[in-house]
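Dear colleagues,

For the upcoming journal club I promised to circulate an example of a predicted protein-ligand complex. I picked one with iron/sulfur cluster because it came up in last month's discussion. The inputs are reproduced below in full, followed by the predicted structure.
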Amino acid sequence: MSPNPGFLKLDLAIRGIVVDDSLRGRNDLFHAPTVRGPVARSVELVLPGEVLVSAPVDEAFTTDSPYSLLQEADRFYLQAGDERAEVQIVGAPGYYAKKTRSGLPMWRIGSSYGPYLAINPASRCAFSAKGSQCQFCDASTQGVDRDEPIPVEDVVDTVRAAFAEGAIDFVYLHIGYVDSEDSGVRFLEPYVRAIKRHFDTLVAVQLQPPRDNRWIDYIYAIGVDALSYSIQIHDEEILKSLCVGRVEQVGRQRYYDALAHAAQIFPNGTVWSDLIVGLEPTESTIAGVDSLVDMGVLPVLSVFRPLGDTDLRDHPMPDTAEVAPVFAHMFERVREAGININWVRDLSFAVTPFEARYFSDPDAAVSGALGPLYRSRLGNLAVRNLSRLRRRLRVRQVNDSFGSSNL
Ligand code: SF4
């Protein structure tokens, strides 16, 4: 087992974890919120070094995994061969079992991943309606299969419940494609305003680029703190073959142009774009990282997952050793460019430049060792400490629940 938490996170995300019999029946420890398919069921772990990972645990996906997760007394361990490391489990939050004022189950509205609550309040993605959806897209996670948007009040109820139990630190709103000049900015506005009015929190938003840059200025003006237009795949031909809608309805270049404009409007480090590792050659992902960094945009790398509901359910997973250099490259380029890496830093589903430091410098341990460049302009030291405290609370709740379980 790699002692490097960055490599370990990547390998776990790619290969998954076998659940030992000592944890059978403990469904409260595993996350299966709104997704289906062979890699839908996952466990969220805090690895040594406080690195957060979401790893698949479904048997259909993990048959070849060398990793197993087990419990001894009140402690959890990750084991590979003779080696083991103590880990913490971040269990499914309690609000998943609650309902909003209109009776909607909250697990259908918001999923918590590490420090954030992800909510897609929209109905069907317009790409899907045109038959041009991204081939890796899982309809149920993206709201593609919902006929009506979620009422603002139900979103507020869910955010309140998640904050009340200390499950999250900020809110992340994401929607698919909206076929209009603003690409959904006006749709999101009441949600952003309501969340800002009711909670002292940061709001991050991901959507497709608007046709006109003035909507980027507008979304900043209504209070959005961080913004993403995710290109996902840099290679032009592969993007065209896997994401017809992005290319035909929006245009590949529009993603980059909109990101470049947003990076001039928003604070340093608060505009990001995801690239999926495993759907294009590593050189192409590296070129994508370079394009984003050159325009002051923070790249975030997520590992491809062959979700059962998607056209790519049989696509092979990437090889950890082959893709690891992309992560080291990302960290080095972001550091050279002086992009703030503290805002987008602890994501269980993706590797951020903050975590990618482990690929470049295996001895990297604490953020304080990284120097003043990494001090946040948004005062995120406080947010980070709060995040850790809240995570520990959630971890403790999981551990405490063992005391009352029959296992
Ligand atoms: S933009 Fe692509 S990934 Fe996002 S919801 Fe639409 S089809 Fe799915």
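Two points we might discuss: The chain is about 35% helix and 15% strand. The CA atoms of residues 145 and 386 lie 35 Å apart.

See you all on Thursday,
B. R.
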